[in-house]
Amino acid sequence: MIKKIIFISFLFISTSINAFQFNLRSKDITVSGISSGAFFAHQFHIAFNSKVSGAAMFAGGPFYCAKGSSSKALGRCMNGKESYNLASESFESIKKLAKRNRVDAINKIKKDRVYIFAGMNDTVVSSAVPYQLKRLYHLLGLKNESISMVDDMMAGHTYPTISYGNPCATPKKSPFISSCNYDGAYESLSYLYPKKTSSMNVEKGELLKIDQTKFFKRGLGKPLMQESAYIYIPKFCENGGECDFHVAFHGCSQTVDHIETQYVMNTGINEAADKLNLIVLYPQAKKATIPGRNPYGCWDWWGHSGSEYHTKKGQQLSIVARMIQDLTDIDLL
Questions:
Q1: ∠288-294-296 over CA atoms, to 5°?
Q2: What residues make up the domain containing 183?
Q3: In principle, which of 20, 56, 145, 306 could form an S-S bond with 32, CB 3.0–4.6 Å?
Q4: Residue/partner pairs of 211-215 with CB below 8 Å, 24 or more apart
Q5: What is the pLDDT of residues 231-248, one digit of tens each?
Q6: DSSP classification of residue 18
Q7: Could you tell me if residue 333 is inside a domain?
Q8: What is the per-residue pLDDT across 157-195, written as a single tens digit (0 to 9) for each?
Q9: Residue 131 CB-density burial (10 A; 0-12 exposed, 13-18 middle, 19+ buried)
Q10: Rounded to an integer, what distance in angstroms lies between the CA atom of residue 231 and that of residue 248?
Q11: Domain total for the chain?
């Protein structure tokens, strides 16, 4: 499947127009994220599971955990107290939503692959919560061999890298990227694509900025998303090679307002994309100016953008889905 895209790049001093033809290997995509991005990547996996073949989640939890409540989000979904029923509650919610076509029918999920990371020194999201996420995927039909759970690293609330960021055991500190002598990006993405052979000594690809606003339906403020997103295109994909499509969601306090482009540039995702021939879309959330609403620019996994936030009708979920459709011709909505 070939999709021709015209980009206007704002990353360089001179504005350039770049035309690419994406030769996509599959009509399935994968997703990943950390913190709110992990909860959101999981939401996206559930909502659009007919077109998503895998998800990687760093410090995330199960679907509809917060049930539209910020207090539940801060409580059982993060500190782990009273979290023992989260998986079963999520499973029941998913089945009900699938019957109403608010999320895709769930019969395909059992064929997917999932990577879950839980840092032993994470003081933001208790390890009890990612365990409930793993349990939920078991309830959805995934076998042990389709789930990779990394829970033995003395890491904080962070995206682990080989050498960039804070000391690995730092419990929680901006930019929430840590040097752990562990390539979280490559380990997670290569797990989602087990049949891919890693390419070595590859040329670096190109990172571009693209417009998100044309996918908004209710203006910029309501969905709390930036005007622009980023997309990384490996040289192999730029030259017409057969590639796959991945979407990477940053976490809270990792927007360009908070840490500029560190999440896009320094997590190792782009380097992994070069090796695995993955085109990577980086949607961008935005912090709220209204006190108390969403000051950290988190992706919506508790309802700040509306009551349908966790379904295919959710503002942020549907915006990202429309972006993917526009870039790839993969029909999600």
A1: 95
A2: 2-328
A3: 56
A4: 211/8, 212/283, 212/284, 212/319, 212/323, 215/319, 215/322, 215/323, 215/326
A5: 999 999 999 999 999 999
A6: E
A7: no
A8: 999 999 999 999 999 999 999 999 999 999 999 999 999
A9: buried
A10: 10
A11: 1
